[in-house]
Design goal:
Elements (H helix, E strand, L loop, with lengths): L1 E3 L2 E3 L16 H4 L10 E4 L3 H16 L3 E6 L2 E6 L2
Antiparallel strand pairs: 1-2, 3-5, 4-5
Length: 81
């Protein structure tokens, strides 16, 4: 143990380092590759910002076009080309 500013900090040994926690990229989280022209996805909650941004990025990399429209239920994204 080490005494630091009148508080005690415990030093642990033999604790393995966990595997690297890789977050799932958004383009893998959403099914963009499975979408055909005319298909759409409705995003609600936290995904209202992330989903459409991911669609744009995926489309830019693959030469596809997506459009989005906000409604009372959330944000809907369509593949248009």
């Amino acid at each position: 143990m080490v005494q630091v500013l009148k508080s005690t900090i415990q030093i642990d040994t033999h604790i393995p380092i966990p595997d690297r926690d890789r977050r799932t990229p958004r383009w893998e989280k959403y099914p963009w590759a499975k979408m055909e022209v005319g298909h759409s996805i409705l995003f609600t909650g936290d995904d209202e910002d992330n989903g459409p941004a991911s669609a744009y990025a995926y489309g830019k990399r693959h030469g596809w076009t997506f459009t989005r429209k906000r409604s009372a239920h959330g944000v809907r994204v369509w593949r248009v080309s």
